[in-house]
């Protein structure tokens, strides 16, 4: 029997994925404005800022926390919230698509039920599709009477409970966060460990806390993680109770400020501005190679662990390698730091899927201990999902480790096959069928890409 230690220790490995049209340099824009409780007005300003960013050749535009609105009371804040399929999100999607640009909507009040609202960072691609959705995990509940600060975000928002894997974009891999998350360096470190090249902190920092900590914290996150930092900020006087610090900013991995918008100035209640800078991934790689801080971490002395593996949202445009074959992202339904699960082109039983290592490796012994643990942890998760989806309580889990064991594709992979009573005359006949299922003379027709993609789309909803 094979026993694997599933302890989720975060080691450093960035899987090589491919994103169409990725280049080493990319223009990005960071925006700031003064949101109010008037959603139509706020949207009009956002459109103006995005158009300005497009004119400056930006490929990705970053907007602040509370892009949708800032309410005047707890009741109004809840009442104005909308679901992801609401009118306002449709406007943002159309804005991205019509301008052929990616949008980071740094924070919206996402309504999921009558009593539940999340502070959500939404990443929209240039086709108008949501590519990533992060729900803020650290809520700002702070009362400092002497500094006139009394904010309880938990009064109107629910905290998220997942760390997202970095999202692939034209400017690099984005780690998504929101405002108060900036004060928790563990989150940034986890994102870096999972491949982030850019850390994002859309915010509505108060004027008081901004003066004390805003720039210092942002530059620290950039330096300690060797990442670009992009932080879009709210500015100025939103209502009689709220004043935000401003200074939307772009910082390079050395901690150098590349571009920024104005800091709040008393007497200047509002500001609408755009700052642009170039993200240079070759420069980032050079800097990391010259000072390989992450390689010098003493994982033998200390480590950092997640209670759960981050959620990796899958881009249909990604291409995955499976030996000499390519697997379209649209057929992949689950992804981890080291493995991916995808639907099968020819199934031995209904629901038969495969899980493979992201890194090309012929046999289990070619994988690291961390990769092996990740692969089998993924297999268990996928097994549970398939049993639920196919209403069964039994599964055949099989690895053909080498040619003589029946492996026809020389890339480590696990077969997950949901079982039902009577699906084979003799239970072990499944292994004969498995050995023959991908032979050329198999009369069973190959499934179409559309069939495989549709199945993957359904399975994704379980993770």
Structure description:
The protein is α+β, with helices and mostly antiparallel strands. It has two domains: 25-296, Carbon-nitrogen hydrolase (Nitrilase/N-carbamoyl-D-aminoacid amidohydrolase); 319-460, HIT family, subunit A (2-Layer Sandwich). The chain has nine helices and 23 strands. Strands 1, 2, 3, 4, 5, 12, 13 and 16 form an eight-stranded mixed sheet that branches. A six-stranded mixed sheet has the order 8-9-10-11-14-15, covered by helices on one side. The chain has a five-stranded antiparallel sheet with strand order 19-20-21-23-22. β6 and β7 form a beta hairpin. α1 (39-55) packs parallel to α3. The longest helix has 21 residues, at 369-389. The radius of gyration is 24 Å and the shape is elongated. The two termini are 28 Å apart.
Contiguous helical run count? 9
Structural class: alpha+beta
Q: Kindly state the mean pLDDT as a whole number? A: 90
* Strand fraction: 25-35%
Report the top-level CATH class of the largest domain. Alpha Beta
Instruction: Give the biggest beta sheet.
Output: 8 strands, mixed
Provide keyphrases for this structure:
eight-stranded mixed sheet; alpha+beta; EC 3.6.1.29; disordered N terminus; Nitrilase/N-carbamoyl-D-aminoacid amidohydrolase; C-N_Hydrolase; 2 domains; elongated; six-stranded mixed sheet; HIT family, subunit A; 463 residues; 23 strands; 25% helix; 9 helices
């Amino acid at each position: 029997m094979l026993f694997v230690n599933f302890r989720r220790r975060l080691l450093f490995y960035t899987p090589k994925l491919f994103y169409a049209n990725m280049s080493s340099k990319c223009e990005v824009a960071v925006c700031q404005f003064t949101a109010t409780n008037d959603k139509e007005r706020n949207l009009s300003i956002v459109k103006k800022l995005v158009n300005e960013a497009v004119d400056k050749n930006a490929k990705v535009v970053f907007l602040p926390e509370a892009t949708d609105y800032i309410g005047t009371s707890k009741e109004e804040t809840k009442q104005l919230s909308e679901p992801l399929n609401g009118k306002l999100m449709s406007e943002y999607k159309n804005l991205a698509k019509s301008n052929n640009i990616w949008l980071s909507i740094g924070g919206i009040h996402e309504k999921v039920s009558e009593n539940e609202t999340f502070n959500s960072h939404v990443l929209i691609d240039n086709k108008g599709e949501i590519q990533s959705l992060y729900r803020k995990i650290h809520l700002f509940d702070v009362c400092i009477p002497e500094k006139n600060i009394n904010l309880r975000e938990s009064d109107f928002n629910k905290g998220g409970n997942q760390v997202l894997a970095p999202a692939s974009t034209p400017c690099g891999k984005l780690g998504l966060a929101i405002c108060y998350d900036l004060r928790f360096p563990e989150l940034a470190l986890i994102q870096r460990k999972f491949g982030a090249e850019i850390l994002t902190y859309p915010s509505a920092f108060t004027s008081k806390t901004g003066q004390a900590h805003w720039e210092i914290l942002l530059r620290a996150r950039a330096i300690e993680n060797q990442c670009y930092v992009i932080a879009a900020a709210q500015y100025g006087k939103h209502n009689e109770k709220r004043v935000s610090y401003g200074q939307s900013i772009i910082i390079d991995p050395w901690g150098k400020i590349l571009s920024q918008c104005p800091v709040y100035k008393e007497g200047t209640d509002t500001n609408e501005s755009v700052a642009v800078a170039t993200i240079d991934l070759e420069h980032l790689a050079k800097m990391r190679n010259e000072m390989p801080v992450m390689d010098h971490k003493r994982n033998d002395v200390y480590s950092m662990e997640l209670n759960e593996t981050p959620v990796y949202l899958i881009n249909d445009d990604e291409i995955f390698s499976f030996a000499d074959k390519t697997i379209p992202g649209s057929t992949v339904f689950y992804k981890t730091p080291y493995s991916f699960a995808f639907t099968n082109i020819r199934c031995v039983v209904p629901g038969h899927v495969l899980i493979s290592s992201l890194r090309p490796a012929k046999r289990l012994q070619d994988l690291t201990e961390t990769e092996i643990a990740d692969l089998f942890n993924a297999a268990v998760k996928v097994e549970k999902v398939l049993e639920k989806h196919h209403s069964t309580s039994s599964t055949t889990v099989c690895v053909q480790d080498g040619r003589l064991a029946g492996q026809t594709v020389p890339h480590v992979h696990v077969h997950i096959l949901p079982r039902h009573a009577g699906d084979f005359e003799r239970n072990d006949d499944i292994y004969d069928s498995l050995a023959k299922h991908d032979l050329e003379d198999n009369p069973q027709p190959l499934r179409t890409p559309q069939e495989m993609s549709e199945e993957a789309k359904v399975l994704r909803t379980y993770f």
